[in-house]
C-alpha cells in the first residue's frame, strides 16, 4: 500500500476511534418536496437496538482472526453457469431469469468484478489493521464461488485459529443480506467438520456506521454539485437510492419486526430509508428523493419490493436530472455495473434526463476504517453509546436474536452468530 493511502487510512482510523462519537441526528420526515415517498417512510423506532442490552457484547473478546465473507462471482465464461447454480440452489428462480443474468456476466467475459474488489478490500483492510496496531490475520471466504468459505476455514484451522470475527460484505438486515451468511458459515463449519474447533461471531450489520455512510454522502454531494453546475435547479433534481429488491415476505420478517415499527418493507427498507434520510439531511435537505429497488428475480407471481429503479425513472415528473445512489451495495459488482450503469442510465437517457450514478464504498478509507472500527468495538466490548451509528436505529445487534431474518419459505436452517433459541 502506498504511503499516501496508508496515511489516509491512519487519519481515518484516528477519526473513527478518537473523535467524539458522531452526533445523533433526530430523524425527521423528509422535506415536503420529497414526492412519492410512501406514508410513514421514516421509521419510528419503538425500541432502538441500542436499548436491547443482551444483543450487544459488552465484555472484551479475544479473536484469533477475522473472516471477510463475500458473495463470490464467476471469473471466466466456464464459471458462469456453475456459479448461478450455486447461488440459486433450491430457490425457484425461473430458468429465463438465469439465462438473462448469465448474459450480463457473458457480456463482461464471464467475469464478475466482485472478487477483485474483495481482493482490493482485503489489501486495504490489512494495511488499515497494521496502521491501527491490530495484529489479526484476515481470511477471505465467499458464499457462492472460490475462494470458498470451506477453504478459508480449513486454512484458518490449520493455522491454529479457534475464534473468528466475521465481516459480511453486506450492511443491512434481511435473509439474503444477513441470515444467509450466518447459515452458510454454519454449513461450512459442518461440511469441514470444524464445528467444535472454530467459533465464529459476526460484527453487527453496519448500515448506519458513519464510515459506511460517508462515501455515499460524498458521492451525493459531488453529483448534486455537478447537476447544479449543469444548470439543474434543486427542484428539478431527484435522488434515487437504489438497493437490491427482495421478496416482500422476506422484507416483512427482516430486522427484528417485534421490536421496531418499521412500516412497509420491514427492517430492510426501514434501515435504507433511515440512512437515505440522513444522507439527504447532510447534503441537500430540500432535494426530493425516494428509495427504489433493482435486480428482481423469482417467479412473477411472487411479490418483491417495488418500485423498480427503471419504473421510478420513467415515472419522474417535472425533473430534468436524476442521481442514482447504490445505497444497498458495498462495491461496483455486477448489480451496479449492469442493472444501474447499463440499464438504469439507459432508461434515464431515453427519458431525456441528465443522470449520474454515484460511487459505492469500495475501498474508500472511511469504509475501510469502519470495518476496522467494527472489529475494535468487539475486541474492546465497547459501550453501546460509544459506538459509531448515525441513525436512531443502531448500533445494530452484535448477536442476532432467535429467529432473526429466518426464511420459512426455504425451511429452517441452523445459523451461527446468534442467540440460540
Ligand atoms: C439483498 C441482496 C444483496 C445485497 C447483499 C449482499 O451483497 O449479500 C445481493 C447481492 C448480490 N447478488 C449477487 C448475484 C446474484 N443474486 C441472485 C439472486 C438473489 N439475490 C438476492 C438478494 C441480494 N443479493 C435475492 C433475494 C435473490 C434471489 C435468490 C436468492 O434468494 O438467493 C442471483 C441469481 C440470479 C438472479 O436472480 O439474479 C445472482 C447471480 C451478487 C454478485 C454480483 C456479482 O457477481 O458481481 C451480489 C453481491
Ligand atoms: Fe443477489
Automatic annotation (TrEMBL):
Asked if Repeat is a keyword of the record, the answer is: no
| Pathway as given in its UniProt record | Porphyrin-containing compound metabolism; protoheme biosynthesis
InterPro entries of this UniProt entry?
Ferrochelatase (IPR001015), Ferrochelatase_C (IPR033644), Ferrochelatase_N (IPR033659)
Q: Which of this chain's residues are annotated to bind Fe(2+)?
A: 244, 335
Asked whether the UniProt record includes Aminoacyl-tRNA synthetase among its keywords, one would answer: no
Task: For the region Disordered, give the residue spans.
Answer: 1-36
Kindly state which keywords UniProt assigns to this record, in alphabetical order.
Cytoplasm, Heme biosynthesis, Iron, Lyase, Metal-binding, Porphyrin biosynthesis
What subcellular compartments does it reside in?
A: Cytoplasm
Taxonomic superkingdom: Bacteria
- Check the record and name the Pfam families matching this protein: Ferrochelatase
Q: Which EC class, in a word?
A: lyase
Which regions are flagged for Low complexity bias? 8-18
Q: Which NCBIfam families match?
A: PRK00035.2-1
> Which family, according to the similarity comment?
Belongs to the ferrochelatase family.
Report the PANTHER family cross-referenced here.
Answer: FERROCHELATASE (PTHR11108), FERROCHELATASE, MITOCHONDRIAL (PTHR11108:SF1)
General function of this protein: Involved in coproporphyrin-dependent heme b biosynthesis. Catalyzes the insertion of ferrous iron into coproporphyrin III to form Fe-coproporphyrin III.
Name under which the protein is recorded: Coproporphyrin III ferrochelatase
Amino acid at each position: 500500500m502506498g504511503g499516501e493511502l496508508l496515511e489516509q487510512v491512519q487519519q481515518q482510523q484516528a477519526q473513527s476511534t478518537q473523535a467524539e462519537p458522531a452526533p445523533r441526528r433526530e430523524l425527521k420526515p423528509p422535506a415536503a418536496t420529497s414526492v412519492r415517498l410512501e406514508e410513514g417512510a421514516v421509521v419510528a423506532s419503538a425500541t432502538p437496538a441500542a436499548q436491547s442490552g443482551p444483543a450487544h457484547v459488552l465484555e472484551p473478546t479475544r479473536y484469533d482472526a477475522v473472516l471477510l465473507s463475500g458473495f463470490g462471482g464467476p471469473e471466466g465464461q466456464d464459471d458462469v453457469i456453475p456459479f448461478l447454480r450455486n447461488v440459486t440452489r433450491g430457490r425457484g428462480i425461473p430458468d429465463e431469469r438465469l439465462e438473462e443474468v448469465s448474459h450480463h456476466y457473458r457480456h463482461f467475459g464471464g467475469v464478475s468484478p466482485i472478487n477483485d474488489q474483495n481482493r482490493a478490500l482485503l489489501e486495504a483492510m490489512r494495511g488499515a489493521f497494521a496502521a491501527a496496531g491490530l495484529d489479526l490475520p484476515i481470511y477471505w471466504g465467499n458464499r457462492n464461488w472460490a475462494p470458498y468459505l470451506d477453504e478459508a476455514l480449513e486454512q484458518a484451522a490449520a493455522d491454529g485459529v479457534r475464534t473468528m470475527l466475521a465481516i459480511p460484505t453486506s450492511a443491512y438486515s434481511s435473509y439474503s443480506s444477513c441470515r444467509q451468511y450466518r447459515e452458510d458459515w454454519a454449513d461450512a463449519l459442518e461440511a469441514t467438520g470444524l464445528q467444535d474447533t472454530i467459533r465464529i461471531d459476526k460484527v453487527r450489520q453496519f448500515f448506519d456506521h458513519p464510515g459506511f455512510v460517508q462515501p455515499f454522502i460524498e458521492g451525493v454531494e459531488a453529483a448534486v454539485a455537478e447537476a447544479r453546475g449543469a444548470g439543474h435547479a434543486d427542484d428539478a433534481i431527484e435522488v434515487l437510492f437504489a438497493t437490491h429488491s427482495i421478496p416482500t415476505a422476506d422484507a416483512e420478517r427482516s430486522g427484528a419486526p417485534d421490536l421496531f415499527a418499521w412500516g412497509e418493507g420491514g427492517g430492510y427498507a426501514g434501515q435504507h430509508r433511515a440512512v437515505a434520510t440522513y444522507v439527504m439531511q447532510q447534503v441537500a435537505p430540500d432535494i426530493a428523493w425516494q428509495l427504489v429497488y433493482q435486480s428482481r428475480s423469482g417467479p412473477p407471481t411472487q411479490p418483491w419490493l417495488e418500485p423498480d429503479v427503471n419504473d421510478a425513472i420513467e415515472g419522474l415528473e417535472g425533473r430534468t436530472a436524476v442521481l442514482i445512489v447504490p445505497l444497498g451495495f458495498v462495491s461496483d459488482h455486477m448489480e451496479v455495473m449492469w442493472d444501474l450503469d447499463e440499464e438504469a442510465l439507459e432508461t434515464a437517457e431515453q427519458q431525456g434526463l441528465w443522470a449520474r450514478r454515484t460511487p459505492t464504498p469500495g475501498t474508500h478509507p472511511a469504509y475501510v476504517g469502519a470495518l476496522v472500527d467494527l472489529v475494535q468495538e468487539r475486541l474492546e466490548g465497547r459501550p453501546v453509546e460509544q459506538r459509531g451509528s448515525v441513525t436512531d436505529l443502531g448500533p445494530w445487534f452484535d448477536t442476532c436474536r432467535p429467529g432473526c431474518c429466518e426464511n420459512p419459505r426455504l425451511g429452517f436452517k441452523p445459523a451461527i452468530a446468534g442467540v440460540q433459541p
